[in-house]
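FIELD: query
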Amino acid sequence: MSISFEPDKKTYIQSHITMAALFMAAGMAILWVMGNPYLWTGAIGGLAAVAIRGWYLMDEALAEGWTLDATGLRGPGGRNVPITQIEKLRRIGSAVQVVTRSGDKHLIKYVADTDAVIATIDAARR
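FIELD: result
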């Protein structure tokens, strides 16, 4: 039996909206510190950068699912994390960070319910 953790499109878009807001504010702050009177251009630049990135990478990001089975986690690019090697699980925004005993770190990105993913993996570890 295996359980799949697939990226959620709505979560992907929401993450990019949050990221855009942060970059818009950062762009405006940088221009303000520099003394530029056209602060609004920082907002436009931040929004454009995140929107273009989000659009360009969406298909690739939404195809990166993970599968949990009795032996471990299998992810994109041939990643394999044995269940016995999982040391910690952390929520980072809309992602779950999997930390192994050797210190390797993997992200299960854009999941709709990070707490459920952590609970599922924790249950499999026990």
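FIELD: remark
The mean pLDDT is 95.
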